[in-house]
Amino acid sequence: MTVFTTTLTATINQTTETSARAPFIQQLSSGDLPLATFRYYLIQDNHYLTAFNRLHQEIATYLPANEGAILSHLGEGEDAARQRMHREIGLGMQELQETPIAPNAYSYITHMYYQLDRYGAAAATAGLLPCYWLYSELAQRLAVKHSPVHLYQEFFDSYTAADFTTSTEQMKAIVNQQAASVDELGRQQMTRAFQISCYYEEQFWQMAFDQQEWQ
Ligand SMILES: Cc1ncc(CO)c(N)n1
Q1: Other Cβ atoms within 10 Å of 55 Cβ, number
Q2: Dist CA 146 CA 136 (whole Å)
């Protein structure tokens, strides 16, 4: 049988292409992105990562013990790098918590929870995967360019680091294990969950670039 994640390659490649062309990423790479825009991104992404981590813990309870332990550990993967970046731009806990979540971040999080609630752990793990896979692909492409802004380069570097690459491989293995444990309909639901997450990943850049607010 084909390894399930290979059926998702075209979708992630497309999302990587679209993301690489997004003005947010272009300016992050060139160094032209206003710091206020990056600060907005870090605040919204902190909302996202908080929910993302909680969701790892919740999904982990439905997985076989081995995979569950790995997933639970994966959920905390980005914390240290982010805390360093928050310190560098003087972003404190109060501002992170008090700034309201923006519409697209809200929709993305809501989608991930819906997948778990409506379709179960297999679809939910597939919904988490673009997060790992996209950032890994994108950073590998862009890290070599060296953004002139240290903080922006640090952002790319955190996703080319060996441990994040390992996390992406571990997440793929969990998704493949889940795909093998469900029927064809279950795999279709997994594919759909993955595609919708890719959609929201693409929207996340524009949300940050526009500093989107509720209207
Ligand atoms: C929205 C989003 N997707 C993916 C990642 C990478 O884990 C992130 N930090 N934020």
Answers
A1: 21
A2: 16
Q: Tell me how far CA of residue 108 lies from CA of 7, 19, 20, 94, in angstroms.
A: 22, 16, 20, 23
Domains of the chain and any CATH numbers: 16-210 (1.20.910.10)
Distance from the first to the final alpha carbon of the chain: 48
For 146-167, what is each residue's pLDDT tens digit?
889 999 999 988 888 888 889 9
Pocket lining: 49 vs ligand 1, CB cutoff 6 Å: yes
Q: How confident is the model at residue 1 (pLDDT cuts 50, 70, 90)?
A: low
For residue 176 the two structure tokens come to 């493949």
- 209 pLDDT band (50/70/90 cuts)? very high
Q: Using DSSP, how many helices (H) and how many strands (E) does the chain show? A: 11, 0
ipTM rounded to 2 decimals: 0.97
Q: Is the CB of 48 under 6 A from ligand 1?
A: yes
- The span from the CA of 204 to the CA of 19, in Å, is 9
Does the CB atom of residue 204 touch ligand 1 within 6 A?
Answer: yes
Return the higher-pLDDT residue of 30 and 146. Answer: 30
State which of 204, 205, 207 you would mutate to test the pocket of ligand 1, scoring each by most atoms of that ligand within 8 A of its C-beta: 204
Phi, psi of 148 (to 5 degrees): -65, -20
Q: Find the mean pLDDT for residues 173-198.
A: 98
Counting ligand 1 atoms within 8 A of each CB, the residue from 46, 111, 131 with the most, and so the one to mutate, is 131
